Predict the structure of histidine kinase.
Amino acid sequence: MASRNFYIQLIVRVIFLSLTAVALAFSFAYKWYFTSGLCAILLMVQVFSLITFINRTNRKIAYFFDAIRNEDFTLRFPEGVTIDSFQELNRSLNRVNGLIQEVHMQLQIREQYYQEILKQASIGIMTYNEKGHVLFANPTLEQLLDYTPLNHIKQLKQVDENLYEIFKDFQPFQRKLFQLSNEREQTQLALKSTPLTLDGQSLLLVVVQDIHKELDEKETESWVRLIRVLTHEIMNTITPIASISDSIIKYYRKGGKITPMEELEESQIKNTLKGLEVIKEQGGDLMDFVQSYRSLLHVPDPSKTLVKGKDLLEKIDVLMSARLLEGESEFNILCHPEDLEFYIDEKQISQVLINLAKNGLQSVESTSGGKVQMVAGIDENGSKYIDIKDNGPGISPEVMDEIFVPFFTTKSEGTGIGLSLSKRVMQLHGGGIQVRSIPNVETVFRLTFA
């Protein structure tokens, strides 16, 4: 409606302006100088009026957009003017201004709501740009670091020099663990970074969490599991020793007195020898068990060199192929890219891969079309990995949390330290080992390297 009235008035003014111009030209041609003068004055007035009419509308729209840009929603245009086109235009501008103001208020309410959530969050959150300027740091982060206010990551030098180095060199999607010490306590911090872009500016969002309590609980839980397994293994060994020892003692002591040699029977002596042999055997098993525990605790530091992933997997392939001569299972390898290299202790990682490959082949022995595959590659975060996959029975959820506990095993044979030792080796390499399993579909052990 407003635009139609505007166009009608504009057309009428242009028509009158054209007629006046024609009259000026006609009167000038017939030398009617007085009439020509009046037409010229009228023409100038009409041109000035047209310019003023157009500028008034443009000025209102310009004021309107300037007010929106400056978030000034108090601007109101009078709706009681006599010109219908201006009246409709003013109403439309006021209506749009009201709608934008309402949307702006809703956005402010949401922003305040999210800000309050971030302030009340139990984890520390900080966002900073490529120059290190901190755009946001919630109170939890300042409390964890015992420093406020945080305006630049260089201020972290006053908290801990090593912590500043982590933030300065933080890459997207990285995870770090850091132990922060002060006069009062030691805090174990877990840091995770996520990239984001805001208004065309590259930012890094870092989440900081105090995991000291969780680590204590996990450590206690691990000790409970280990003690339970150790108790089970030791009791299985000690119980027959105690029982046989008690039986032998009864041969040589009766009524609190030592049995004379002449009263001993040949069968008792033979049983004594058999009992001592069993005790020796059980003692040897116990010594082997302790030796296994010592080997787990004394894993040497890795001597790292650059190793080609394809060569590493081919060596494992040769070793595993020898185990497939009598079976129907399949074992194959894949390395992508082919020039992939790992900075590792080749002997230690080879032993880990052999152990996992053997476990995989054992698990698919009774599976029709059993298959074990070893895959080396780079994930979406740029981290190198080696997957050991099989399509065997898998690992049940009940024992998933127990498989890395030392001496825990579901096999009838074995010490139960293979996976524990593998996990220890990966920790010494700065990496890790994870497992996921869908019973009777797929089980995957993943070695990740820093």
Summary: Residues 212-252 form the longest helix (41 residues). Residues 271 and 438 are 51 Å apart (CA to CA). The domain at 122-210 is CATH 3.30.450.20 (Beta-Lactamase). The mean pLDDT is 79.
